[in-house]
């Protein structure tokens, strides 16, 4: 798992070490320079004669970059420092000069921004040390002008964070130089994992500078090994009911495909059984695709409610809203015939329109940004889809506060917010952005919740971990189904058994 701590937590961890005279900046700068040297070797084959620009702002972030520049200059790299503020880290600047680095002071020559940007763009590597965890708001002044003028040309290593991102919330309030690599110190920061800033981070390298971070991380990212470690493997004593039955309310005559996709994914993820609840015509289509599915009513260990179901009751809903409501009542433990006590539920697509005002944490709502906006508006928030896309963490947290449910907000980076925990998963290729991919996720998650049904109801934070795990499996299956080109949703469901097998094989490795 990758864990990210807030700026306040990182500063608190730094404080005693700095007071004790531990040379944190030396450690950070040396690790940064070592990484840049490795990148230069990989990209140019030789270090000597290569060219690096160091963009340095007023604070310690600029200090890190300048000290790293000094190390590079001593290795034969032609280093140019570009200063964007009339203040600069004195020690860093002196070290760079002593090592033979050149200095361009943009604060003293603001008219040169465009020319300097053009020169910097031609360098082998640009180190972005404009601002780090001390950033407040959008990048300002000369730093903003320089970043805007640089555009998307150069190969960039961000120092600690891409300058100007919302370090704690992952927002992108203004211009940010997109990084190819980010070298971050002490611990990952939330904004490096959260969208939309996560898209500007490139490869993330976390450098140990000796900080001890206690307390829960602000944001976590599960890795495949985390999911492998908790995957329920059936034993001799297991049978289909112990493995978990998924109740599926999905699809209508108008949208039968969603039912097929969710059912296929649930079966392929290893459900003990999938019970399909829906109109006969759709049930026939589901059975034609997956004869393992059962249509008789009975007890379930999790519900998946809503894929391919319209948001309002009308002739086209084929009775699915009533079945969905009954499923949700059963998941709350209110309908004894369909479960023994409460069980987890995945509420997707049309199901989001009839989920009650307040939910238990074992209900996982799986909206995309547009659907989350609708959920929030129902709770009185004046919010637009663009607001959700600009600040996914803020709005997913708000939806969790308002509904009590665990929220899985879908996107290129999927954000999951549960009781006291937040995950940000970036596991899927962009080819997964295709109709039906969400139905497949709902099926995968339904089976994973059914396999740990009682535990999930017991532990308010576990639904979020399982939901994040489902995003991992979904993303890995999409990678597996990705031929290097288009990915079809049903192919993702078909790729799940191989994905799980690979996860399990990695347990022993
Ligand atoms: N302490 C240590 O030894 C260690 C520190 N470490 C390193 O230090 C970094 C933190 O350093 P820091 O605290 O000096 O803050 P930093 O990120 O450089 O920014 C502050 C400066 O930026 C400016 N500024 C702010 N917002 C701005 C904006 N929007 N647009 C433009 N400018 C803006 C602000 O200016 P002001 O607002 O005062 O005008 C201020 O001068 C951290 O990320 C890590 O790299 C590591 O090496 C570990 C050891
Ligand atoms: N650019 C992207 N990169 C990776 N995954 C994506 C991207 N865009 C969307 N996804 C994923 O694809 C799925 C789309 O789900 P959804 O929007 O509900 O589609 P549908 O309703 O058609 O099934 C989600 O799991 C989402 O996280
Ligand atoms: K930076």
From TrEMBL:
AMP binds at residues 410-414, 438. SUPFAM superfamilies: Ribokinase-like, YjeF N-terminal domain-like. Residues 223-503 form the YjeF C-terminal domain. The keyword DNA-binding does not apply. Keywords: ATP-binding, Isomerase, Lyase, Metal-binding, Multifunctional enzyme, NAD, NADP, Nucleotide-binding, Potassium. It catalyses: (6R)-NADPHX = (6S)-NADPHX; (6R)-NADHX = (6S)-NADHX; (6S)-NADPHX + ADP = AMP + phosphate + NADPH + H(+); (6S)-NADHX + ADP = AMP + phosphate + NADH + H(+). Binds 1 potassium ion per subunit. Gene3D superfamilies: 3.40.1190.20, YjeF N-terminal domain. K(+) binds at residues 61, 128, 163. Residues 5-217 form the YjeF N-terminal domain. (6S)-NADPHX binds at residues 60-64, 132-138, 160, 258, 308, 368, 439. Its EC number is 4.2.1.136, 5.1.99.6. Its cofactor is Mg(2+); K(+). PANTHER family: ATP-DEPENDENT (S)-NAD(P)H-HYDRATE DEHYDRATASE, ATP-DEPENDENT (S)-NAD(P)H-HYDRATE DEHYDRATASE FAMILY MEMBER. In the C-terminal section; belongs to the NnrD/CARKD family. Belongs to the NnrD/CARKD family. Catalyzes the dehydration of the S-form of NAD(P)HX at the expense of ADP, which is converted to AMP. Together with NAD(P)HX epimerase, which catalyzes the epimerization of the S- and R-forms, the enzyme allows the repair of both epimers of NAD(P)HX, a damaged form of NAD(P)H that is a result of enzymatic or heat-dependent hydration. Homotetramer. This is Bifunctional NAD(P)H-hydrate repair enzyme.
